[in-house]
Amino acid sequence: MAVNKALKSEFSSPQSVRRRIRDAKEFLIRSILFLCATSSVLITFGVVWTLLKEAWPFFQEVSLKNFFFDKEWTPLFENPQYGILNLISGTFLTTLIALSVAIPLGTITAVFLSEYASSRVREFLKPVLELLAAVPTVVYGYFALLFVTPLLQVIFPSLSSFNALSAGLVMGVMIIPYVSSLSEDAMRAVPVYLREGSLALGASNLQTSFKVIVPSAFSGIASAYVLGISRALGETMVVAIAAGLQPKISLNPFESTQTLTAYIVQVSQGDLPHGSIGYKTIYVAGVVLLCFTLIFNMIGQKVRSHMEKKYK
Amino acid sequence: MSSLDKVSVINVNQQVARLKRQDALFWIVGLMTLLFALVTLTSLIVDMAISGWPRITQSFFFSFPSRFPERAGIYSAWVGSLCVVLVTAMMAIPLGVASGVYLEEYSKKNFWTKIIEINILNLAGIPSITYGLMALGFFVYYMKLGQTIITAGMTLGLLILPIIIVTTREAIRTVPSHIREASYSLGATKWQTVWNHILPYSSGGILTGVVIALSRAIGETAPLITVGALTFIAFLPTSPISAEPPFVSGQWLHDPYTVMPIQMFNWVSRPQEEFHVNAAAAGLVLLTMTLLLNGAAIFIRYRFRKKYKW
């Protein structure tokens, strides 16, 4: 009876009914938000699972030995060969060219913005520089094919009209802001007293930048480099438009080449029946690409967490 | 002063002069580097404007693609882009903001939260074409959604989700904790605090992130090629509003489509030079859109920073 009475009074009191409704509402909202946050994990699983599932049948037909050691990558020909190294070689060639532009220029830009430029100049130039990363990649592809390649052909007449060089160079310019922005953040996170200490000992601005600031911020800078690498590995439209469609194991930047991503674009432009060999091979290329980028992402995160520990 | 001291003073002076020269030199090198990047950007815009400008006429915006370059236009492309981005926004904004709010305001520092955080960083690093492959396997063939606007919109939605989550979290983090404490001390619940205070105060930052993410989605090409955007579409999606009941229709979600970047890619990859002019014109339109959106984002950030001072 007593319990009943207590319950009754609890329920009849409008305030506590309101409280219960409110608590239920809070719980509901919390659960919905949690589900949203969790969905990103599901997306990752979705990506990995789909790629592996669709690529799996390929390896039941093609042995790993052929996959790694065939001389050519011609999966759609009469006598198909599946030498993935041809595509990997193209991917790494363009990435290498892009990095040899983006890393030096990005680092110098970052040092300049962080240590030399006044705060007003920096506030203006940083967003402008970030526009480089905002330009759609298909526009960069157009630029590489119809502006940079003809320009380079004036200097190197032997340059073929589709080549790894101009694709890589343009990709490099596109990646500069990724490198410079993160590096600059890392450099500005270096405590001011290190800077002041070095300058007080009579070091010049340049010496301070490269002997104190850059080494102290190096893990942050390195993670910017890693981000640049994974951008370059996964970049698609520039290489699909300007680098050509000929997969081959070669380090000659003047020739046409093909990357993993460009291969995927080339094949998926045609009509792709589910389960055909073309369909399977684009997933295989996708899995290889995903492996590379995941490895580089993980290295990047390791390096970054190392930096965060250092300055806490 | 002994003669030895004199020598060392001269040496020091020389040394200082040398260092100053190096400093000045690096200043010039840094400026040149920055200028190089900016000159590249400018020459890209100017080159495209010079080749494309003559094609920017009203009929270019309202013609369908054609085999004859001078008759081809971008009507189906920009309408398609608009529809796809609409689906993308409807999917990515609520999901992204909700995730950001959960991670910043609700989650405790535990294993699961850490997994989610690492995972979001990883997602942001996955190449966009991988999302396209996933969408082809999952949306097109597994869920049987076909090569339609809804597939494209969802694909791009997943792609920009990490950007929205990360910027939402950063925006929320700038709201000082005394705002929360004041709200709680007046008896507000968590959600009331979030809805009435945290979200309004961080809306500038969130909006900036959303605009940047959408401009990325507009320019994205590769994932849509894999899910089979068509390049030659001479009709528009079904109108969402009709004169007969039930007046609104979702049929447009299931229509085939093409988007601006794909139209441009198609024109660039043709050998005839006349089509390259069209590509430049389409590129100019695309570039104008992304630069305008990015300008808007910078403006929003600036406006809101002025509005709230803590």
Automatic annotation (TrEMBL), chain A:
- ABC transmembrane type-1 domain residues are 88-300
Q: Which InterPro entries match?
A: MetI-like (IPR000515), MetI-like_sf (IPR035906), Phosphate_PstC (IPR011864)
- Which Pfam families does the annotation name? BPD_transp_1 (PF00528)
Q: Name one GO molecular function term.
A: phosphate transmembrane transporter activity
- In which compartments does the protein localize? Cell membrane
Q: Which UniProt keywords apply?
A: Cell membrane, Membrane, Phosphate transport, Transmembrane, Transmembrane helix, Transport
Under PANTHER family, the record lists: PHOSPHATE TRANSPORT SYSTEM PERMEASE (PTHR42727:SF1), PHOSPHATE TRANSPORT SYSTEM PERMEASE PROTEIN (PTHR42727)
Topologically, how does it sit relative to the membrane? Answer: Multi-pass membrane protein
Name the GO cellular-component terms. Answer: plasma membrane
Residue ranges spanning the membrane: these are 27-52, 92-116, 128-148, 154-179, 212-230, 282-300
Q: Which NCBIfam families match?
A: phosphate_pstC (TIGR02138)
What Gene3D superfamilies does this protein map onto?
MetI-like (1.10.3720.10)
Name of the protein in question: Phosphate transport system permease protein
Assigned protein family = Belongs to the binding-protein-dependent transport system permease family. CysTW subfamily.
Domain of life per record: Bacteria
Q: Which organism is it from?
A: Pseudobdellovibrio exovorus JSS
Task: Answer yes or no on keyword rRNA processing.
Answer: no
Q: What does this protein do?
A: Part of the binding-protein-dependent transport system for phosphate; probably responsible for the translocation of the substrate across the membrane.
- Single biological process term from Gene Ontology: phosphate ion transport
From TrEMBL, chain B:
Task: Name it.
Answer: Phosphate transport system permease protein PstA
What residues does the ABC transmembrane type-1 domain cover?
A: 78-297
Cellular localization per UniProt: Cell membrane
> Per its UniProt record, what NCBIfam families does this chain match?
3a0107s02c
Q: What is the lineage of its organism?
A: Bacteria, Pseudomonadati, Bdellovibrionota, Bdellovibrionia, Bdellovibrionales
Q: How does it sit in the membrane?
A: Multi-pass membrane protein
Give one GO biological process term.
Answer: phosphate ion transmembrane transport
Q: What is its main location?
A: membrane
Q: What InterPro entries is this protein classified in?
A: MetI-like, MetI-like_sf, Phosphate_PstA
Q: Where does the sequence pass through the membrane?
A: 24-53, 73-99, 120-143, 149-168, 224-243, 279-300
Its Gene Ontology cellular component terms are:
plasma membrane
GO MF annotation list: phosphate transmembrane transporter activity
Which protein family is it in? Belongs to the binding-protein-dependent transport system permease family. CysTW subfamily.
Keyword field: Cell membrane, Membrane, Transmembrane, Transmembrane helix, Transport
User: What Gene3D superfamilies does the record point to?
Assistant: MetI-like (1.10.3720.10)
